[in-house]
Amino acid sequence: QVLLEESGGGLVQPGGSLRLSCAAPGFTLDYYAIGWFRQAPGKEREGVACISSVDGSTVYADSVKARFTISRDLDKKVVDLQMNNLNANDTAIYHCATLPGCTGTWAERALIYGIGRWGKGAQVTVTS
Question: Which residues of the chain have pLDDT under 50?
Answer without folding.
Answer: none
